[in-house]
Design brief:
By secondary structure, the protein is mostly helical. It is built from 10 helices and no strands.
């Protein structure tokens, strides 16, 4: 392989990373809040741009749409990259879509925590893992009513999913995504440990 071919190959791979980042960085929660007259999410509840904080506006429809769109952008990034670039491109797009959501250039790199986006990524990347993660999130949320804890459980279980469903080549990715989710939830983890983390629908 000559140098020009190698450079072209690397540039092509990283283009999927750029695509993932740009799609992931679309702040649907902020857009919907503005369009629907719900105010600035930065001044509401936790100040986060995700569906959980949108729900604190009292508008369940807006929260649901944020959940779907934030998950959808992660899924679309993965599906496009996989179709035209294969599994490696899909994994790269998955990671950068999450980074884009958590650190969007449009919002001064201050984004969301990536829960809906990571679930969308999993559903597109390996559907059984996505279902396992979604089921884990839902079960924990229904029983304990704590969104952050549900997310932490879901991404932890998704790592086991790579073994359960025979897709070990995605193990590194699920670990990286889980680490990012845990990092973004570090304040929530502190509140969980001291018993002050708000429940779903409760003001932060």
């Amino acid at each position: 392989m000559d140098t020009s071919t190698l450079i072209f190959g690397l540039a092509n791979e990283w283009s999927w990373g750029v695509l993932g980042y740009l799609l992931g960085s679309i702040p649907f929660g902020m857009v919907l809040a503005a369009v629907m007259g719900l105010g600035n999410l930065r001044d509401i509840g936790s100040g986060n741009i995700g569906a959980t904080n949108v729900l604190r506006t009292g508008n369940k429809r807006a929260a649901f749409l944020t959940l779907i769109l934030d998950g959808g952008k992660g899924a679309v990034a993965v599906l496009i990259a996989r179709k035209f670039g294969g599994d490696t491109a899909a994994a790269l797009a998955a990671l950068t879509a999450m980074i884009g959501h958590c650190y969007p250039i449009w919002l001064g790199f201050k984004g969301g925590k990536g829960v809906a986006t990571v679930l969308g990524v999993y559903l597109a990347l390996a559907f059984p893992i996505g279902l396992l993660a979604c089921a884990s999130w839902l079960a924990t949320a229904l029983v304990l009513r704590i969104s952050s804890l549900s997310a932490l459980v879901a991404v932890a279980i998704s790592i086991l999913g790579t073994v359960i469903f025979g897709v070990p080549h995605f193990l590194w990715l699920t670990i990286a995504l889980a680490a990012l989710v845990y990092w973004r939830h570090r304040a929530n983890i502190a509140r969980l440990l001291n018993g002050t983390e708000p429940k779903i629908g409760q003001k932060s």
